[in-house]
Write a structure and sequence with these properties.
The protein has 2 domains: 207 residues, NAD(P)-binding Rossmann-like Domain (Rossmann fold, 3-Layer(aba) Sandwich), CATH 3.40.50.720; 84 residues, N-(1-d-carboxylethyl)-l-norvaline Dehydrogenase, domain 2. The protein is built from 13 helices and 8 strands. Helix 2 packs across helix 3, helix 3 packs antiparallel against helix 4 and helix 9 crosses helix 11. The N terminus is likely disordered. The structure holds acetoacetyl-coenzyme A and 1,4-dihydronicotinamide adenine dinucleotide. Acetoacetyl-coenzyme A binds next to helix 1, helix 3, helix 9 and helix 11. The site of acetoacetyl-coenzyme A has 21 residues, from helix 1, helix 3, helix 9 and helix 11.
């Protein structure tokens, strides 16, 4: 049943993508990690020309490999009875993705830049300042930030009217939601273009203001953190906490599995940022166990260990 539902989601996303039109044709995705590679994939499979940028050529090679494998999964389902069409779909989608290690050069031909680099305000500021100086006048900038303020990120650029949040969910090819975040100065035209683009890449878009965590993370992150605290206190085992939320609340993953999946470093960046801004909010207080795991390099699935152990990919 679960498989059937997910098959439907991928197929629906794909057919929506083909049918929808967007003013955006050329997109540059900066950051080729977990999120950036997924954003590049859904854009390419919707017919957009994509440049995927990362500072590391190794990351780009790994991203291309995983995008190829994930497109293959989509093709197997959508073109179940027409394998040759499936091969063509994979080849054409892959051909739409170029890679680069030079963010400034890649921004020069973009209608839309989606930033998905590390969750750090200073690093994001440095990048956007550099891009603002070289990108064409019409280019819209968007951040996929999980928790930082869009207004604060865009404070370093001149094009504040052409800046917003496009917040995807992990795994991008499967999760159907896109949060479209309007900053204080995001223009109506930019907002409309971002909404249309989101639909064109097969997502259901919701709109939200520039508040901490937008909608999903404002609810999800405190929930994950409460689960870590519960485990830290020894109230239940990790397995039992996860089983409880899967079987008792119908979640597809338990909170500790989900924390490992998102990345414990990302969880910590989010919590620390909110704690610094809102020191009196008990839900945002630092968690010694989370800090310990991150300091030991146990970042979750991507590192081979977090709350659980994983086979390294
Ligand atoms: C931190 C933030 O800012 C915001 C966030 O992203 S918060 C995190 C939000 N995400 C979630 O909450 C995810 C919750 N988990 C789930 O929905 C599901 O467990 C899951 C979709 C990740 C996996 O589903 P599953 O049924 O347990 O696993 P699985 O059978 O391997 O996958 C189902 C299908 O999804 C697809 N899929 C799974 N992972 C995929 C990936 N990384 N890329 C592409 N497709 C994928 C596959 O097509 C797979 O089909 P196959 O049977 O052909 O392999
Ligand atoms: N992990 C998750 O589940 C989600 C994360 N996000 C957000 O998306 C962003 C990226 O997160 P992930 O993909 O998980 O991180 P990641 O660590 O997997 O990937 C980030 C990539 O950015 C690259 N990078 C860093 N600085 C760069 C620069 N200046 N120029 C080009 N590339 C650079 C790194 O080499 C790395 O490959 C963060 O802002 C995060 O908060 C949003 C939704 C979900």
């Amino acid at each position: 049943m679960k498989k059937m539902v997910q098959f439907g989601v991928i197929a629906r996303n794909f057919s929506n993508s083909s049918a929808m039109q967007s003013a955006i044709k050329n997109i540059t995705v900066i950051g080729g990690g977990l999120m950036g590679s997924g954003i590049a994939q859904v854009s390419a499979q919707a017919g957009q020309n994509v440049t995927l940028v990362d500072l590391s050529p190794e990351v780009l090679a790994k991203s291309q490999k995983s995008i190829g494998a994930n497109l293959g999964r989509v093709a197997k389902k959508v073109y179940k009875d027409k394998p040759q069409d499936g091969e063509k779909f994979v080849a054409e989608s892959m051909a739409r993705i170029k890679t680069s290690t030079d963010p400034a050069a890649a921004a020069k031909s973009a209608d839309l830049v989606v930033e998905a680099i590390v969750e750090n305000m200073g690093v994001k500021h440095k990048l956007f300042k550099q891009l603002d100086a070289v990108a064409p006048e019409h280019t819209i900038f968007a951040s996929n930030t999980s928790s930082l303020s869009i207004n604060e990120i865009c404070s370093v650029v001149k094009r504040k009217d052409r800046f917003g949040g496009l917040h995807f969910f992990n795994p991008v090819p499967v999760m159907r939601l896109l949060e479209v975040v309007r900053g204080a100065e995001t223009s109506d035209a930019t907002y409309k273009t971002m909404m249309e683009w989101g639909k064109a890449v097969g997502k259901t878009c919701i709109t939200c203001k520039d508040t901490p965590g937008f909608v999903v993370n404002r609810l999800l992150v405190p929930y994950i953190c409460e689960a870590i605290r519960l485990y830290e206190r020894g109230d239940a085992s990790a397995r039992d906490i996860d089983t409880a939320m899967k079987l008792g609340a119908g979640y597809p993953m338990g909170p500790l599995e989900l924390a490992d999946y998102v990345g414990l470093d990302t969880n910590k960046f989010i919590l620390d940022g909110w704690h610094n801004k809102y020191p009196d909010q008990p839900l945002f207080k630092p968690i010694p166990l989370l800090n310990k795991l991150v300091s030991e390099g146990k970042l979750g699935v991507k590192a081979g260990e977090g709350f659980y152990k994983y086979e390294k990919k």
